[in-house]
From TrEMBL:
Stated name of the protein: Class I SAM-dependent methyltransferase
GO MF, any single term: methyltransferase activity
Key words of the record: Methyltransferase, Transferase
One of the GO biological process terms: methylation
Length: 257
């Protein structure tokens, strides 16, 4: 069971990215079901996820899954058309045997050992519908800093770093929010450490743009990273949101490459 800390709007950065990156699959799916896995002591994140997905797919449905029966009972007053809450864990027990198009697991795996992460990822991926997406990551208490991994049925695809730019001193500040698969790998010799080091250097080089605001400085730093050969997969529209998405292979732990 997670600590359960859940603040409204905590997962807004992740949700907005999901709604943009997974929009095509949401629109064409015959069964647009999403799971908020381990939603915590209050159901705010599931309620918010439904609202954000329905801007893309008006008939999207969300199922909140919690391992603590008391939390499931407490969430029932918030259930409504398109939003239900069930007791369960990594088996993702959806009513009617549905397989979800999306599983979002935020701040769930931080309490597990790194050695357990890939087994959990594999188990959750088997629950996905064709074209489905698993998004697993970590954020701070109010959602200013967030890092998540996106996985398809075949395995990890991308990693996204997202932040409220006004709160950022340097990009490596995001290291404290790396997901469990990466947080112990931020050491010399590991790809994620090399990336954050390069990002800090690009950020420092873009310092003259600070006069135009942190957003312009971030955009320049990300562009410089891409020009230096880092596999940046998104573009300025996402960079302006304080995001950067890379191919997973660029930061995957050295032992697992």
């Amino acid at each position: 069971m997670t600590r359960g800390t859940t603040n409204p709007n905590r997962l807004r950065r992740m949700d907005r990215w999901i709604a943009a990156a997974h929009a095509a699959e949401l629109r064409r799916s015959p069964d647009p079901v999403a799971v908020d896995l381990g939603y915590g002591a209050a159901p705010w994140t599931a309620v918010e996820l439904l609202g954000r997905l329905r801007r893309v797919r008006p008939d999207a449905r969300v199922v909140g899954v919690e391992i603590d029966p008391a939390r499931v009972a407490a969430a029932q007053p918030y259930a409504r058309d398109g939003l239900t809450f069930v007791h369960g864990g990594f088996e993702v027990p959806l009513p009617g045997g549905h397989r979800p198009l999306l599983i979002r697991a935020a701040n769930v795996l931080r309490q597990y050992d790194e050695s357990e992460v890939h087994a959990v990822w594999a188990r959750l991926r088997t629950r996905l519908a064709p074209g489905g997406l698993l998004v697993e990551g970590t954020c701070d208490e109010i959602g200013r800093r967030h890092v998540w991994v996106a996985l398809g049925p075949e395995g990890p695809r991308t990693v996204t770093f997202a932040t409220r730019l006004g709160s950022l001193e340097r990009p490596s500040d995001l290291a404290e929010r790396l997901p469990k698969a990466l947080i112990h790998r931020n050491v010399p010799g590991e790809p994620v450490h090399a990336f954050l080091t390069a990002f800090d250097r690009a950020w420092a080089a873009a310092a003259p743009l600070s006069a135009l605001g942190a957003r312009q400085r971030w955009i320049r730093a990300v562009r410089d990273l891409r020009e230096a050969g880092w596999p940046v997969l998104d573009g300025p529209a996402r960079w302006r949101q304080g995001e950067i998405t890379l191919a997973w292979d660029a930061v995957a732990p050295a032992a697992g490459r």
